[in-house]
Design brief:
Layout: H1 2-15, H2 22-28, H3 31-47, H4 54-78, H5 80-83, H6 101-123, H7 125-146, H8 153-162, H9 164-173, H10 178-201, H11 203-209, H12 214-218, H13 220-237, H14 240-243, H15 249-271, H16 278-305
Helix pairs in contact: 3-4, 3-9, 3-16, 4-6, 4-7, 4-9, 6-7, 7-8, 7-9, 8-10, 9-10, 10-13, 10-16, 13-15, 15-16
Length: 306
C-alpha cells in the first residue's frame, strides 16, 4: 500500500497540478544556464567586425536567450522522470508538480519556433539556421539520444552550448570565420570538466537516476584523469585568440592566468583521496567564473583595442 501511494505521488508530481506561477515558467527556462549562453552570444556579437543596428543587436541577443530557454524547457519536459529522482532537480517545476508536463512542452516549442522565426526575419538567415540547429541538437541529440545512453553525453552534447558566440558573430557579419570557431572550441572543451566536476559531486544521484555520467560508468579515478586532460587542452585553447593576433596582451595574460587556475583546480581533484568532493565542488564553481571572466576579457580587450 505504501509503495502504491509513493508511486501515485510520483505520477502526480510528474504530471503537474496546474498551480504554476510566473516564477515557475521562468525556472523552466533554466535562467542560470541561460545567463552564460546569453553572455557568450553577446560577446560573439560585440567583437564581430562590421556594424549592426542597436535594435537588431538586442533582438539577436534576445532570440539567443529565448532559444536557450526553450531548449531548457523541453529538456525539463523530457527529463521529468529522472529529475523527480535526483535531489538536485526534484524541486524543478514539473517534478514538483507545479507545472503540467504538456504545458511545459508547448511552452518550449512555441518559444523555440518564435526565437528562430524572429531571428530569421529581423536579423539574418544564417544566424537563424545556427539557432535552430543549436536547439535541435540540444533537444534531439543530447537530451533524447546521448544523455541516457553514453558517458560521452556531455562531450558530444556540449556542442549545443558552444554555438551562441558563433550565432552572435553571424548576426553581425552574415558569415562564420576562424575566430568564432575558436570560441566554439573553447566552450566545447570547457563543458566536460565543468560537468564532470558536478557529476563527481553528484555521482550517487546520477547513478540512482540511471544516467551514465562518466563517474558512474568509468569510476572516480578515470573521471579525474579526464578532467585534467581536458583542462590542459582548455588552457591551450584559451590562448589561441592571442597567439593568432586577434587580441592584445590584455586578453592573453588574463587567459593565461585563468587557464592556469583551472588546471590547478583539476590537479587538486586528481590528488584528492577518493570520496573527497571539496575540490570538485570548487572547480565546478570556478569553471562558471572562468568562462564569464574569459569572455569578459575578450570583450574588454576588444573595446580597449578600439
Amino acid at each position: 500500500m505504501a509503495d502504491l501511494t509513493a508511486q501515485t505521488l510520483t505520477v502526480e508530481a510528474v504530471s503537474g497540478s496546474g498551480t504554476a506561477s510566473v516564477g515557475d515558467y521562468i525556472a523552466l527556462l533554466k535562467p542560470r544556464v541561460m545567463s552564460l549562453v546569453v553572455f557568450t552570444g553577446f560577446v560573439g556579437l560585440a567583437i564581430a567586425p562590421g556594424d549592426i543596428h542597436p535594435v537588431l543587436a538586442v533582438i539577436a541577443v534576445l532570440c539567443i536567450a529565448v532559444g536557450a530557454g526553450a531548449s531548457g524547457a523541453i529538456n525539463m519536459w523530457y527529463d521529468r522522470d529522472i529529475d523527480a529522482i535526483m535531489g538536485r532537480t526534484d524541486q524543478r517545476p514539473i517534478p514538483a508538480g507545479r507545472v503540467d508536463a504538456d504545458e511545459a512542452l508547448s511552452f518550449g516549442v512555441i518559444l523555440a519556433g518564435f526565437s528562430v522565426l524572429v531571428m530569421a526575419l529581423a536579423v539574418n538567415w544564417l544566424a537563424a539556421v545556427l539557432l535552430a540547429a543549436t536547439i535541435g541538437f540540444y533537444v534531439f541529440v543530447y537530451t533524447m539520444w546521448l544523455k541516457r545512453r553514453t558517458p560521452q553525453n556531455i562531450v558530444i552534447g556540449g556542442a549545443a552550448g558552444a554555438v551562441p558566440p558563433v550565432i552572435g558573430w553571424a548576426a553581425v557579419t552574415g558569415d562564420v570565420t576562424w575566430l568564432p570557431v575558436v570560441l566554439f572550441a573553447i566552450i566545447f572543451v570547457w563543458t566536460p570538466p565543468h560537468f564532470w566536476a558536478l557529476a563527481l559531486w553528484k555521482r550517487g544521484e546520477y547513478a540512482a537516476a540511471g544516467v551514465p555520467m562518466l563517474p558512474v560508468v568509468a569510476g572516480e579515478q578515470a573521471t579525474k584523469v579526464q578532467i585534467v586532460a581536458y583542462s590542459l587542452l582548455l588552457g591551450v585553447l584559451g590562448l589561441v585568440p592571442w597567439a593568432m593576433a586577434a587580441t592584445t596582451a590584455v586578453y592573453g595574460v588574463t587567459a593565461a592566468v585563468l587557464g592556469t587556475l583551472f588546471i590547478v583546480g583539476a590537479v587538486q581533484i586528481l590528488r584528492a583521496p577518493d570520496g573527497e568532493m571539496k575540490p570538485a565542488k570548487m572547480l565546478f564553481g570556478y569553471s562558471i567564473l572562468y568562462l564569464f571572466a574569459l569572455f569578459g576579457a575578450l570583450l574588454a580587450d576588444h573595446w580597449i583595442a578600439g
